[in-house]
Amino acid sequence: MTIGVLAFHGDFAEHLDVLKSLSVQCREVRSLADLDKVHRLIIPGGESTVMSRFLDESGLDKEIIKRVVQGSLPIYGTCAGAILLAKKVTGKNAPRSLKLIDMVIDRNAYGTQAQSFQTELKLKGMKKPLPVAFIRAPMITKVGEDVEVLASHNGFPVLVKQGSVLAGTFHPEVRGQDAIHRLFLCI
Questions:
Q1: Catalytic status, residue 171
Q2: What is the pLDDT along the chain (187 residues), one digit of tens a residue?
């Protein structure tokens, strides 16, 4: 199994480092040919409008949607990646999303770069809290009934799953945490 990480923009290198630490075969994805060679995909944090434009211009958006709908591409989005997976995006300069998970997400709702923070989250099914970073993070404001909430912060979902789509508004990879990546490998 090969895990792809969208590597056009954002913190893709950190995701690749976490995957390598787990001895998982992984590769950067920048084209349709790259996407054809992976069995799962991570869309990292970064600038969601730039990433949305890249997905559209490269044609990756249509192929990702097709493969997720067919059930052949589990996907995990962190921060900007979660924004791109949402059914509806609100907030200033909201990008066009892939609409792959039934949630409403508010872009940059936790504030500016200066308002970024670290905290520990209690994840469903895990005994120890997980230290994570929220960096210019979006906020999930609503989820559909088929969406499972795996973690919350201050009453709002921050890690959700629907079918083979996993979305988190925080960054476990910047602290080298591998628990969410391990969870993604089992979806």
A1: yes
A2: 999 999 988 889 999 999 999 999 999 999 999 999 999 999 999 999 999 999 999 999 999 999 999 999 999 999 999 999 999 999 888 999 999 999 999 997 776 666 777 889 999 988 889 888 888 889 999 999 999 999 999 999 999 999 999 999 998 887 778 999 999 999 9
pTM score over 0.90: yes
Quote the Cα angle for 75-166-159, to 5°.
Answer: 155
Structural domain total, the chain: 1
CATH number of 117's domain: 3.40.50.880
Q: How far lies 161's CA from each of 29, 57, 91, 175, in Å? A: 23, 27, 22, 22
Catalytic residue among 14, 79, 153, 181: 79
Which domain does 153 fall in, by range? 2-185
Active site residue 173: yes
Q: 14, 26, 153, 173: which one is catalytic?
A: 173
139 close to 106: Cβ distance less than 8 angstroms: yes
79 included as an active-site residue: yes
